Amino acid sequence: MILESQQNDASFADVWEELVWRGLVHVSTDQAALKELLSGEPITYYCGFDPTAPSLHLGNLVQLLTMRRLQLAGHKPLGLVGGSTGLIGDPRPTAERTLNTKETVAEWVGYLQGQVSRFLSGEGDNAVRLVNNLDWTGGLSAIDFLREIGKHYRVGTMLKKDAVASRLNSDAGISYTEFSYQILQGFDYLELYRQYGCVLQTGGSDQWGNLTSGTDLIHKVEGASVHAIGTPLVTNSDGTKFGKSEGNAIWLDASMCSPYAFYQFWLNTDDADVISRLKIFTFLSRERIEELESLVSTEPFKREAQKVLATEVTTLVHGAEATQAVIDASRALFGQGDLAALDPATLEAALRELPNTTAATDASIVQLLVDTGLVSSQSEGRRAVAQGGVSLNNVRIDDDAATLDSYVEAGGMAVLRRGKKTLAGIFVG
């Protein structure tokens, strides 16, 4: 089991040092106090995930793995899925969120709880505990909320929060609904402090205003000092946003982002980014990561670090079996394996990532070369066939009049290749 094989790196004096080395601390409350706290007796900590979609994504994975490292150090995680905050959503930089129905949000809560529980151990004295903030806000009246919690917040301070300030300066402005989000998140921390003795919250650095909403509220109400860690927003070396492929988020749910597409995303990591990704998204040791860093410098053409990264993270999210199926599919696509032996779902996912088309059984191979963009014209396609540079399912095409039905049955799939590395997918209608 993946969880059982995970461990923190014993070369670090404590988990705090490892978090810092892995680049997971962008901003925090008192660092000396945090280091002492995390190297002492087990504490309870939490991170919240709002069900604004039916799956978590790579940004959430940063938090899940940070939580797992703290759990491996003996600390006790609370995985909060926001059944109430998910009904509102934290303020986005430019516009109001579309509010989902209560039924939809409740359904997504279940999905996200299942995902959170996959990355954190449910065994032992520090087993993960899943909590839902709807449990303590659902029966709370607006008057009680304003009297007990709202009175501790100053509007001037709330207006200075980055998420709020950016929206106030935008054309869209901000509603009272989203403006109140930081109070709700602060209330969550207070409630978890009271119920479980929770003294640390983790989250993305873009959530720092919401994180400190909780630390400030607990200090005012309970007179206690608690902590927060804001992890960096992971960006690519060129400044572009990380976690997107062709404009779409990289989801953790296989039905929303196939294991093949997931693996390819990591495999395409730039040399300048791959080592920081290995630090954040894998449990490889410092020694192993430094070995891979050396290979990036001396043998970048082998892309060994990228292969290790893709294998490690895909295994972490989708399991070893799915990862091996993806690797087998990648090899088979390029003529290094048996296409017929591949799992149909994996093959289909791979072909969907290529230029592809749906064709009738009597379609001309030459025309399919044009339709998929492998050649620009039929005459170019016929020349490619004559030169022996075209194959279908790894079988060379010798006849420029050949049709699809000679090679693939109706309802089947095929890999059309021109040359060694130019591929397209064919779905037979």
Polypeptide structure, described:
This protein has 429 residues and is an alpha/beta fold. It has 3 domains: 2-233, Rossmann fold (3-Layer(aba) Sandwich); 235-353, Orthogonal Bundle (Tyrosyl-Transfer RNA Synthetase); 354-429, Structural Genomics Hypothetical 15.5 Kd Protein In mrcA-pckA Intergenic Region, Chain A, CATH 3.10.290. Helix content is 46%, strand content 13%. It is built from 20 helices and 13 strands. The strands form 3 sheets. Strands 1-6-5-2-3-4 form a 6-stranded mixed β-sheet, sandwiched between helices. It has a 5-stranded mixed β-sheet with strand order 9-13-12-10-11, sandwiched between helices. The two termini are 41 Å apart.
* CATH architectural label of the largest domain: 3-Layer(aba) Sandwich
| Biggest sheet record | 6 strands, mixed
**Overall 3D geometry?**
elongated
CATH superfamily of the largest domain: HUPs
